[in-house]
């Protein structure tokens, strides 16, 4: 089993890429578990085709009894197992604490032991790398971290914070950064800016995803581009990244 925590600034396309990677791995016959770690609870939408999935924290608010795995994990495209941590009621409570609650419940229910996934992908908001948002890095949930960034200043700033957070734990046998995925926004000099970041951090580039209208086209259909048309050039680029994993 290999476990990846995928981090990036909010709105950078991290969930889109995570879903596409999950779909690509599932197409190759692997068992995949994707866990959304964002209070918006929208990480797995493109895998579920519009199917409803109750976030774990929402289930706990609505019910007194402990859920079964069937209550909080749903299979989507390619048999990918999907879960969402969710978060507190907006304006009340700590989103990071919601992630920790979800992780502890999945541990209690022995989700990994029962599903026996080949790959676990944690889709984590990267604007704040503290508390529950850092749990996949520091609490032995993930083996490696993948950073998604564009060449935009704030995206690279978030990528730097994520890298530094991992570096702070490097002597404690926690997750290490596997590499960077460039999700292009077509800003001037974008590839050079990202290359400067790679040179500074010593991180490898796992792949470049160009802007492509096929991605939002299929997202509007509640699909990944892999499900929509795996033969497209953009799909093949994502599949090649999955093959590196």
Descriptive overview:
This protein has 245 residues and is α/β, with parallel strands linked by helices. It contains twelve helices and eight strands. The chain has helices spanning 14-27, 45-48, 56-62, 69-72, 95-108, 111-115, 135-138, 153-167, 190-201, 214-219, 225-228, 233-244, and strands at residues 2-8, 32-37, 74-75, 81-84, 119-125, 144-149, 176-183, 205-209. The protein has an eight-stranded mixed β-sheet with strand order 3-4-2-5-1-6-7-8, sandwiched between helices. Helix 8 links the parallel strand 6 and strand 7 (176-183). The longest helix is centred in the middle third of the chain and has 15 residues, at 153-167. The radius of gyration is 17 Å and the shape is globular. The chain starts with a strand and ends with a helix. The mean pLDDT is 92.
Task: Give the gist of this structure.
The protein is an alpha/beta fold. It has helices spanning 14-27, 45-48, 56-62, 69-72, 95-108, 111-115, 135-138, 153-167, 190-201, 214-219, 225-228, 233-244; strands spanning 2-8, 32-37, 74-75, 81-84, 119-125, 144-149, 176-183, 205-209. The protein has an eight-stranded mixed sheet, with helices on both faces.
